[in-house]
Amino acid sequence: MTNVTLRQRLRPVSRLIPHPIRQRLLRMWRDILSLPARMKKGARPFPWATMHDVGGGEFYQVGRTIRDQLIAEAGLKPDDHVLDIGCGTGRVAFALTDYLSAQGGYTGFDVSAPGLAWMIRHMPPAAAPFRIVRADIFNTEYRQNTASPASAYQFPVRDADVDVAFATSVFTHLLPADAEHYLKEIGRSLKPGGRALITAFLMSAPRQAKMDKAFVPFFPFGPNAFVGSPKVPEAMIAFDEDTFLRWIDAAGLKLDRPVVRGRWCGDPGARFQDQMILIRPGLA
Asked: CATH top-level class for 52-279?
């Protein structure tokens, strides 16, 4: 039985379990599976999924992989100022501590107070200054008790202050108005010639026709979005591709190269989500 077929058979059962409970059970299961790795002699600490879930994969290896993508695809250099949009528990930040120089810098922000506390407590020494900020914004997935919408949040950096920004698995949890605003904030934050690596789920008519093979069965949500759970839309959200590309252009950004298509909808591919490299036009 293929993984796709197994997912198709389990979907009717999983939908009977409320989303928050389903997510909690999944995170508990990941933590149980992680126990052998945690108990190995000399093992480095890594965060519990029940505290703040940043997805699957080995924590430090995933961080190094994303760092290497930033170097190879977004042109990251040791002296650059990096903006980590949704830094979580710091898996990429940890990988940057021995890469960024004293002339470089790092700013990361996230909505999860427990995740940031873990990140600060375990942060390795670094030559570059690292600044970590809690973003007090509303998100139903993380149950933030605040009335401040993400669409009003200003990234904690000055205008044209960032060489490289990145947001992995962030736009997959943003409502349309929030996603459009975050793109504008990326455009504001980047220096001319600066680049951003972002991931998202981009929906098109051909992909809609293949939803039976998709990792998540998305459903329409307003005129330009699709969600996996209407009750908790930020849990998993996709955007109409043409609309998303218009938002990029309106933010003063351009695609630096064609979109790298992910395998989330059943297509072949090395990456799960769709990936884009954005550039703010102008001379660095």
From this structure: alpha beta
